Amino acid sequence: MRKLLFILLSACLLTYVQAQTPTGFGTVLVESSNSDYESLPVINLRSSDYLTVSFDDLLDRDMALRYRVVHLNTDGTLSPLREIEYMDGINKTDITNTNLSFNTRTNYVHYEFRFPEGRRNVKVSGAFCFEVFEASDPDNVMLRIPFMVCEPSVLVDVDVKVPRRVEWRMSRQELAVVVDASECPYQILQADRTLKVFAQQNQNTTTIRQLPMLFQVGSRYEYRDKDEMVFDGLSEFRNFDIRPVEHSGWGVETTYILRDRWNALLLKQKSREYKPYIQDDDINGNYAVKAERMDNSAIEAEYVDVRFLLEDVEPVEGRDIYVVGKFNNWECTETNKMVYYPDMKLYSVTLPLKQGFYDYMYACVENGKLDMPRLEGNNQETENDYFVYVFYREPGGRYDKLLGVVKANSRDI
């Protein structure tokens, strides 16, 4: 069965927050009308909720694009459901809301659509994906954008606490999750195998993991006191502001025009390993598109070549450093891999980003293993968001129902 182009974790949930962005596309956003889900691409089944999906074609191509909806298993593979089983209406729709960028140095085409629309809607809950393709070539999927549909049926309580292990108490955070299915319309059978509970930190797709059940009392299921419940605390996110381009915003050394494109040189950064915790405002890894003094940032915002600088970090054989955040789905690829310049004794990489405010971190990959605390430090006090997702597939069932989505914060009392 063919896999989607997501980053998949072993035995874990698909990276539904944001799909990989193929070359030529940028700023893929999915926003829910349901404020309970905040920045998650989640809507409720059989409700008035809707998603607003947008993205930019940076190659300024003249394309007639369509999209369709596919249903997924929690491991990212296609579910066995046929379209008629999970969709109402025709499952191929033209994206008609397209606009050319206006008065920008970098030309791009902005695409946007809303789902559900008209009589097109989904019939079941679970994990889904929009597949975007050219009308003339439906087999060549150019972009995949995950989303989720929930049928709220269980109560989920999440507590973020100091880890039980003494050696982790200064650097990590531990979850305790309780799922109460007493009012659930489904009879939960063989819960240790059919109930799948996932947790994620700050919408960071590299942190997604399935939680092990500790015990069950009636229709109450508890997940706690296991090592899988423990997350690195890390530090508050680094950030910068490129909403203005005529002058330097927060975290920006200078802005300038080079080869008819806006450029932003960020302030030099250093490793925060073994540094004391510093409380700072951030948006927990997210980003917000906005152009200063523009009425319609979707088409009036510039794409800025942002140069990141990391100094006082010695190169080590087998170690690579990347810039990550929600803006690139936390991926470590050649695109966001930093290059070491021995004459300046620093690492650097330049990324094209749309005007706005961005959170980011430096990710260290050593001998194939991701190590975020290596450059960002590890602190129990750090303010982090946690998202918990409860899926259920009854014995003999053909798909995973999404019964609950809840957010908690490490500073919730």
TrEMBL record:
TM region(s), chain numbering: none
Signal peptide: 1-19
Record carries keyword Signal: yes
The entry's keywords: Signal
Name of this protein: DUF5103 domain-containing protein
Residue ranges of domain Type 9 secretion system plug protein N-terminal in the record: 34-151
Residues forming coiled coils: none
Gene3D superfamilies, per database record: Immunoglobulins
SUPFAM superfamilies attached to this UniProt entry: E set domains
Keyword DNA-binding set for record: no
Domain of life: Bacteria
